[in-house]
Design a protein that fits this description.
This protein has one domain (5-178, 277-387): FAD/NAD(P)-binding domain (3-Layer(bba) Sandwich), CATH 3.50.50. It is globular, with a radius of gyration of 21 Å. It has helices spanning 14-25, 50-59, 62-68, 93-99, 108-120, 168-172, 246-252, 258-264, 294-297, 306-323, 328-357, 362-374, 384-387; strands at residues 5-10, 30-33, 45-48, 74-79, 85-90, 104-107, 125-128, 133-138, 143-147, 152-160, 179-191, 204-209, 212-219, 224-232, 272-277, 289-291. It is built from 13 helices and 16 strands. Helix content is 35%, strand content 25%. The protein is an alpha/beta fold. It binds flavin-adenine dinucleotide. Flavin-adenine dinucleotide binds next to helix 1, strand 3, strand 11 and helix 10.
């Protein structure tokens, strides 16, 4: 039998690198496989709520993240059609007092590079790029991983952090498939100096309307505005996979207020995501293999929690591996037991919040807007289930 690695992490995204770093800090040897020629991130901005920051703190990288992030003053919900403010969440002192951490927005590649640099400082991590996992088999003493480049690796423990189309998930849950939401997201950034619209860029904005929304916030020391335009595609066709063109986007946003029209001038082909999630799984782990991040619980992005949950997963997995010594099967079982209920609730909540945000029926919109207009900016009760303190040990 050839060499058997102690731990193999499949996927070097935010979730995979957070897990790699934490597990390596336990003193284990970790090999991280990435399909791409380089470790990196696609897309632009990422919102990190207090729970995500708590996980980054537990991993020991929060200070570096704070240097690169932006702390918005408020999250403001605007009516996409008439351009009026509907509601806001006040960040700052009272928010931080409630949840222990602030609210941060950051360029994805900045967060990814903090994790990558932290990993690169440890000598017990092996980085393998151009290694796309093709198949995975669990045998009694090890797990065998076959890569598309022909290489075969063996690992005592394997963490599948390989995203929504996870190959590792095929071993644990072969029936699980991505579910199309019929919504499309265009992500695009605009240099601040080119932004002609009159907006307070100390705030994060979400414009909501029937079947559409637009999110805007600054990243990179407020030099760049990150924008995400989301709409329900009427040309949805899972077979061809090319639904949701820019022309369709323009049609869907045609009735929006002038400020939004101005913002959408910058939309580009390129960073388009046809939005999928997966149904919550009942099982993430076998004796030697477990799942993490989108591979375990891909969710719609409407609560801005996918990466935050991947970070929470990483911290929990490290805690369980650390606490159970050589009994990996027990650690992986405890990990799934703790994480599945939490992430399933958020997967379901994200679907519901998407329906509320995109409501088309006038009665539903009236009800939603009345509730939003009547809540106060420092009423955080409806955010507690997402952000509240959860016990995390530093790893
Ligand atoms: C429009 C949009 C906005 C979002 N906004 C937010 C937000 O504000 N806040 C938030 O918390 N979340 C947000 N998310 C969700 C977030 O992007 C994801 O949940 C997060 O990136 C998942 O991280 P991951 O590491 O689990 O998976 P991924 O980021 O998908 O990383 C998987 C990695 O594995 C590699 N890989 C895949 N397959 C293989 C293979 N077979 N072999 C080897 N390597 C492989 C990939 O190349 C990649 O590097 C958003 C998502 C979208 C679509």
């Amino acid at each position: 039998m050839g060499n058997v690695e102690e731990v193999i992490v499949v996927g070097g995204g935010i979730g995979g690198l957070a897990a790699t770093y934490g597990i390596a800090k336990l003193g284990k040897k970790v090999t991280v496989l990435e399909q791409a020629p380089e470790f990196g991130e696609v897309g632009a901005g990422l919102q990190v709520g207090p729970n995500g920051l708590r996980a980054l703190d537990a991993l020991g990288v929060l200070e570096e993240v704070y240097k690169l992030g932006v702390f918005p003053r408020r999250h403001v919900f605007m009516d996409a059609l008439d351009g009026k403010e509907l509601s806001a969440v006040q960040f700052g002192e009272s928010f931080e007092k409630s949840f222990g951490y602030p609210y941060l927005v950051i360029h994805r590649s900045d967060l990814h590079s903090v994790l990558l640099k932290a990993c690169q400082k440890l000598t017990n991590i092996t980085f393998l790029t151009n290694h796309k996992l093709a198949s995975i088999e669990e045998l009694s003493n090890y797990v065998e991983l076959r890569c598309e480049n022909g290489e075969v690796l063996r690992g005592e423990t394997v963490v599948g952090a390989d995203g929504i189309h996870s190959v590792a998930r095929q071993l644990v849950n072969p029936a699980s498939k991505p579910v199309a939401s019929r919504y499309v997201a265009y992500r695009f950034t605009v240099p601040m100096e080119e932004m002609t619209i009159n907006i307070d860029w100390d705030e994060k904005l979400t414009w909501i309307g029937p079947g559409i929304h637009l999110v805007q916030y600054p990243v990179r020391h407020k030099s760049v505005i990150n924008q995400v335009a989301v709409f329900k595609s009427n040309s949805y066709n899972e077979e061809t996979g090319d639904w949701g063109s820019i022309d369709e986007l323009r049609e869907m946003f045609a009735d929006c207020c002038p400020t939004m029209q101005e913002s959408l001038k910058f939309v580009q082909e390129g960073f388009v995501s046809r939005l999928h999630d997966i149904e919550p799984l009942e099982k993430w782990s076998t004796n030697r293999v477990t799942l993490l991040g989108d591979g375990a619980h891909a969710m719609l992005q409407y609560l801005a929690q996918g990466a935050c949950q991947a970070l929470e997963d990483a911290v929990c997995l490290v805690e369980k591996l650390g606490a159970n010594g050589s009994n990996v099967a027990k650690a992986l079982n405890e990990y799934q037991q703790e994480r599945i209920p939490r992430t399933a609730e958020i997967q379901r909540g994200a679907r519901t919040w998407g329906e509320i945000k995109h409501a088309e029926d006038p009665a539903t919109r009236l009800l939603r807007d009345t509730i939003m207009l009547n809540r106060s900016a420092d009423d955080y009760t409806y955010l507690e289930w997402l952000y509240k303190e959860r016990k995390l040990t530093s790893v």
